[in-house]
Amino acid sequence: MTKENQQIVLAKRPEGMPTHENFTYEDVEIKSPQKGEVVVRSLYISVDPYMRGRMSDQKSYTQPFPLNETINGTVVGEVVESEDNHFSVGDKVTGFLGWRYYNTVPASQVRQIDGEQAPLSAYLGVLGMTGLTAYFGLLDIGEPKDGETVVVSGAAGAVGMIVGQIAKLKGADVVGIAGSDEKVNYITEELGFDAGINYKTVDDIQEALSGLCPNGVDVYFDNVGGEISDAVLNLLNSFARIPLCGAISSYNRTDGDLGPRVQTKLLKSRAKLQAFIVGDYADRFGEGVQDLAKWLSEGNLKYEETITDGFENIPDAFFGLFQGKNLGKQLVKIADPKY
Ligand SMILES: NC(=O)c1ccc[n+]([C@@H]2O[C@H](COP(=O)([O-])OP(=O)(O)OC[C@H]3O[C@@H](n4cnc5c(N)ncnc54)[C@H](OP(=O)(O)O)[C@@H]3O)[C@@H](O)[C@H]2O)c1
């Protein structure tokens, strides 16, 4: 079977901010499915900040992307051929697939999703990896309590905007940190955060935050690291909790990203700082999706997506994450469903 297919491969490892030079587009065939395999036509492809880490050849919690191979990430698609009893043509699925129009994979690599329960794109965001990251990081590590103050950085992004809303559901006061006035307005006016600051325009992040957190900070959900987190760590209450989710401010840095040392701050506040990877919670994903879907259906949880059109624009959508171009989950729409 030969139909038009294309893939994007990692041609060169980025140094600093990735550019188009790091990627090449290759024409490839659609592999015919063997027994137990399905062919999935991509509808939405997710681009995520963690992928930057996998583009480098450094020790991490997961292997680097191999050079000259297609980049893998989460994809929502539809089955267009099936050699597996569990899947039929037209089924909507999600899985960890290549940046390709069509992926031929073992059926065990994808799971069926229900387009009636939520829009298909939601399975890459609020009901997918980023929603689950917010859910487990905040509730398991942050443990917000009624009346406490929760600060979240990257607050208008895919993870951050869900973190703030779950914290509100748990009765906390929530302050978000984001990179534009539009984003701050969105999280306060649309999502019900109590306050927000634009870290790009305030003179002194710590001073601005301390004015908004008169009772100190009990939970800091850290999506960004760097100077923003340095400022928040100075405002911690005793026994504060810090789910360390990400450090996007350093992903493209080529220097050592030196900052103040944290040990004394943590000791004085007796805070708990715990880094986590959403995959650590894989055996509890069902529980997370159930709660997130319930809050969505009750109207207690909202989400936003920034959808870039076209397979050829995947790298640009990815670069945009590091320039703050997205509000909510950044996705790339590849095609409309056929079935
Ligand atoms: N631990 C895990 O399992 C896990 C899972 C998913 C994501 N993460 C991490 O969580 C964080 C958020 O991920 P996401 O998928 O929700 O992405 P996102 O927040 O939707 O998108 C990235 C956002 O980061 C902000 N940003 C970019 N450069 C920045 C900088 N130098 N300083 C401060 N903010 C910057 C931008 O917003 P502004 O306009 O506000 O700057 C941008 O919109 C990332 O660090 C990611 O690696 C971790």
Describe this structure as you would to a colleague.
With 339 residues, the chain is of the alpha/beta class. Helix content is 26%, strand content 27%. Strands 3, 4, 5, 6, 7, 14 and 15 form a 7-stranded mixed β-sheet that branches. It has a 6-stranded parallel β-sheet with strand order 10-9-8-11-12-13, with helices on both faces. Strands 1-2 form a two-stranded antiparallel ribbon. β8, α3 (158-169) and β9 form a beta-alpha-beta unit. The mean pLDDT is 97. The structure holds NADP nicotinamide-adenine-dinucleotide phosphate (NAP). The site of NADP nicotinamide-adenine-dinucleotide phosphate (NAP) has 33 residues, from α2, α3 and α6.
Strand and helix map with partners:
Elements: E1 5-10, E2 23-28, E3 37-46, H1 50-55, E4 72-82, E5 92-98, E6 102-106, E7 110-112, H2 129-142, E8 149-153, H3 158-169, E9 173-178, H4 181-190, E10 195-198, H5 205-212, E11 217-221, H6 226-233, E12 236-244, H7 263-269, E13 272-275, H8 285-298, E14 305-309, H9 314-321, E15 329-333
Parallel strand pairs: 8-9, 8-11, 9-10, 11-12, 12-13, 14-15
Antiparallel strand pairs: 1-2, 3-4, 3-6, 3-15, 4-5, 5-7
Helix pairs in contact: 2-3, 2-8
The chain binds NADP nicotinamide-adenine-dinucleotide phosphate.
NADP nicotinamide-adenine-dinucleotide phosphate is lined by residues 48-50, 129-130, 133, 154, 156-160, 178-180, 183, 223-224, 226, 228, 245-249, 276-278, 321-322, 324, 326, 330.
